[in-house]
Amino acid sequence: MPANDPSFPTDVSRAIAPALSVIRNNCHISDARHATDFTLCVYLLKMREFFRWEKNLPFSAPLPHDELTDWLTEREQLWETLGERSFDPVPFGDREYDPFDADTINDQINNPGYVYSSGIGRNLKPHFFIGALEEKRQHNGFTLYLSGREYARDLSAPPAMSLGSNIFIRRESLRRMLWERIEEWRWNRPANAMQEAIACYDFDNAPDEALDRMTDNEARYVMLHEIGEIMAGEILGHDWEHLLAALPHSKAELLVRSVRDHLADTLSTLPELLADANPASLHFYIANLGNLRKSMYPALISAYENRMKTGDSSELADVARKGREHWSALAGDILVLYREGPADLQEQLVSIIEAATL
């Protein structure tokens, strides 16, 4: 990225310009490989918001149709040239680093005020980002990185990720994700958990302040989920990751990931949610569960609905305790099946998981 490049953020040190250029290009390579993972509708929605992020447009601003169309065409043309490219090493000073060596790269950039992460997400999609480091601290044996403005990201921008004992909370991505959920609810305004979550904030009179408050509130709980992910990883071991690698783009993969998500949440997120007695985050937690996870854990939804009627969270706490045992046992059964190596592994996984609702 040349020093006179007008796209270079003015609030970023020129010393990291070469690294930022490479990280942005690695994001493009990842997107080139995985943009077709989405349905057309989801893809177009993600591209609209990606355009909004790149152009630094406020959420309330209408998108310029012609400029968006031209940008979309140019981006897809760029991806066509990158699909077969390998990821480039990230340069700092006179050395280059593997783009997945986030620990070493952070050693180079944390003191100047930046944070970097890289990892593998759903559908084995690599994720890269670099942003402003707002906070780095220790929390119960984990290193927590909280980032603010993001300077490089890919099409999918997970608001949190855990790598080893490191947890990355991406405040800008979290804020954007929350806004998207609010906008989705506003299309039809159903009477559901999302309505209850939104009602805890003053979005009608002070939307920006309300979104900031919601972001601050939910940052704790995405952190708790990532702590649960680390705890689940310690229980499940490396075979779980090998199993996922064998199930790309399949119903079995979605189900297996959902089992782990439920285990992570019953280990960490749900117990803390209930201990905090934080209704706004409880409502949002339920609202943010996809239909698949809800169908696997109907007892949780029933207990939440009873809590809404009575104000009593004891049933929720009981369901969370039972869930921890249930999802841990089911994950163990999944690993046993994987190690046996049946030819119809995917079909058997779907069968045993769908039969093991709680």
N-to-C order of helices and strands: HHHEEHEEEEEHHHHHHHHHH
* Proportion of beta-strand residues: 5-15%
Number of E-type strands: 7
Low-confidence stretches: 1-6
Shape, per Cα inertia axes: globular
End-to-end Cα distance, whole Å, is: 53 Å
Individual helix count? 14
Helix percent reads 55-70%
Any idea what the radius of gyration is?
21 Å
The tally of domains stands at: 2
Helix-strand makeup class: alpha+beta
Mean pLDDT: 91
Largest sheet: 5 strands, mixed
The order of strands across the largest sheet is 3-4-5-7-6
Question: What can you see in these coordinates?
Answer:
The protein is of the alpha+beta class and 358 residues long. The protein has two domains: 14-174, no CATH class; 190-354, no CATH class. The chain has 14 helices and seven strands. The strands form two sheets. The chain has a five-stranded mixed β-sheet with strand order 3-4-5-7-6. It has a two-stranded antiparallel sheet with strand order 1-2. Helix 5 packs across helix 7 (207-236).
Brief characterization of the structure:
The chain has 14 helices and 7 strands. The protein is α+β, with helices and mostly antiparallel strands. It folds into 2 domains: 161 residues, no CATH class; 165 residues, no CATH class.
